[in-house]
Amino acid sequence: MNQEIYCSVNTCHYWSNGNHCKANKIMVTSDAMGESLPDNFDAPQASMASPTPASSCMETACKTFVSRQSDKMNADGVYKQS
Ligand code: SF4
Asked: Distances from the Cα of 30 to the Cαs of 1, 37, 48, 69, in angstroms?
């Protein structure tokens, strides 16, 4: 399946020109869940996470975000596609 994910967070390691997300997979979750999960729990493990209802986009976040300067780029099992 070919999916396009657009994201404007250009400080993320997976961000690319044109606001394309180049992560091979991402996990979106609630802010609270995103804060509580460890760095090594991300999109590859997402199917095991409990559902997290939200009432607005303000309560959701991309768990896969990792700063371009971070030394944890490989902590989550997600990779950047070319
Ligand atoms: S991983 Fe998340 S924050 Fe990073 S570019 Fe993709 S959608 Fe945006």
From this structure: 25, 11, 15, 24
Other Cβ atoms closer than 10 A to 70:
13
Q: By three-state DSSP, how is residue 61 classified?
A: strand
Q: Of 65, 60, 63, nearest to 22 (Cα)?
A: 65
Three-state DSSP at 12 gives: strand
Is the torsion defined by CA of 35, 36, 38, 42 positive or negative? negative
Task: List residues near ligand 1 (CB under 6 A).
Answer: 5, 7, 9, 12, 14-15, 21, 23, 26, 62, 64-65
Cα of 7 vs centre of ligand 1, distance in Å, is 6
Give the tens place of pLDDT for each residue, 16-59. 999 999 999 999 999 999 999 999 999 999 999 999 999 999 99
